[in-house]
């Protein structure tokens, strides 16, 4: 058991980044995704899509999709809409071209999650921006970060550019094919030198594997039913974890380990992410 005391602060902040609550997938209009996160409405629960897919949000996403033609424009769109305020995060997101991480056939510069195969998605750009901003203080040059459920490797690459060559970033993903494709994506991106030098690594694994050191920053890209104790244990004193927690109803939680080892948690916003699960469960029906 973890020895830290757990203090849960329940006051959720306003939903500051709800640019559009949902969208149709850019590749397949019939495969609908919530643009606030990595969520794809599951086939087994069609009622979810009724809740989230309003005509207003679909129109807004269509408008966004038709207007934005480059990564730079996408980042500027996020800035103009108040979804991205940090200059450092904007600079990193401009440097790591999302178009290199989104599978061919999609419109890459849409503020929407997209299908990446294996019942997984790349998160929406405004969610990537939100997580980078929440972790910015713990992604200073030389710091260490862990990205669990690294998927396409986009956010992992952004983390690596934030901490620089003196830092260390590990991506962990349990679908080997996604690990292989994420490494190719990274090799084509501005993070390629960091991968080559070894300050950025991506492994096949889950919560309990490949986690070798305490981290200043931990990001989890899939929703856990509870905050996983092995991840709490891997957080350095002074460290911060951003993790979606819940099943149907999920909160993006910010978990902080104080210097005395005590833990505080607050809810940042409501989200919908794919579940943190076993490989077998994730690939069911795929
Ligand atoms: N941040 C990623 C999100 C990918 S979606 C991106 O934007 O590209 C969430 C990812 O978590 C999926 O790739 C899925 O395969 C992975 N995942 C789910 N459960 C996992 C587990 N138990 N261990 C490791 N990865 C997991």
TrEMBL record:
One GO term describing the cellular component: cytoplasm
Pfam families registered for this protein in UniProt: PCMT
UniProt keyword Transferase present: yes
InterPro entries from the UniProt entry: PCMT, SAM-dependent_MTases_sf
Alphabetized CDD domains for the sequence: AdoMet_MTases
One Gene Ontology term from the biological process aspect of the record: protein repair
GO molecular function: protein-L-isoaspartate (D-aspartate) O-methyltransferase activity
EC identifiers of the protein: 2.1.1.77
Top-level lineage group: Eukaryota
Keywords linked to the UniProt accession: Methyltransferase, S-adenosyl-L-methionine, Transferase
UniProt KW Methyltransferase keyword: yes
Catalytic activity: [protein]-L-isoaspartate + S-adenosyl-L-methionine = [protein]-L-isoaspartate alpha-methyl ester + S-adenosyl-L-homocysteine
Protein family: Belongs to the methyltransferase superfamily. L-isoaspartyl/D-aspartyl protein methyltransferase family.
Protein name from the UniProt record: protein-L-isoaspartate(D-aspartate) O-methyltransferase
Source organism (scientific name): Stephania japonica
């Amino acid at each position: 058991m973890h020895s830290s005391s757990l203090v849960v602060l329940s006051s959720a902040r306003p939903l500051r980044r709800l640019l559009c609550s949902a969208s149709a997938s850019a590749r397949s209009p019939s495969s609908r995704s919530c643009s606030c996160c990595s969520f794809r409405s599951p086939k087994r629960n069609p009622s979810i899509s009724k809740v989230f897919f309003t005509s207003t949000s679909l129109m807004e996403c269509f408008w966004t999709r038709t207007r934005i033609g480059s990564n730079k424009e996408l980042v500027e769109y996020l800035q103009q809409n108040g979804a991205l305020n940090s200059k450092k995060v904007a600079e990193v997101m401009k440097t790591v071209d999302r178009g290199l991480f989104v599978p061919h056939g999609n419109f890459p510069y849409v503020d929407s999650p997209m299908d990446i195969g294996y019942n997984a998605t790349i998160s929406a750009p405004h969610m990537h921006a939100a997580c980078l901003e929440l972790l910015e203080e713990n992604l200073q040059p030389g710091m260490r970060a862990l990205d669990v459920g690294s998927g396409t490797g986009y956010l992992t690459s952004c983390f690596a550019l934030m901490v620089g060559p003196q830092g260390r970033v590990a991506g962990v993903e349990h679908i080997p094919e996604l690990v292989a494709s994420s490494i190719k994506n990274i090799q084509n991106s501005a993070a390629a030198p960091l991968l080559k030098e070894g300050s950025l690594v991506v492994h096949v694994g889950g919560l309990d594997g490949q986690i070798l050191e305490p981290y200043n920053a931990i990001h989890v890209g899939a929703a856990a039913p509870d905050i996983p104790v092995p991840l709490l244990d891997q957080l350095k004193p002074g460290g911060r974890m951003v993790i979606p927690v819940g099943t149907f109803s999920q909160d993006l939680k910010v978990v902080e380990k104080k210097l005395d080892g005590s833990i505080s948690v607050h809810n940042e916003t409501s989200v919908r992410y794919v579940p943190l699960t076993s490989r077998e469960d994730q690939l069911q029906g795929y």
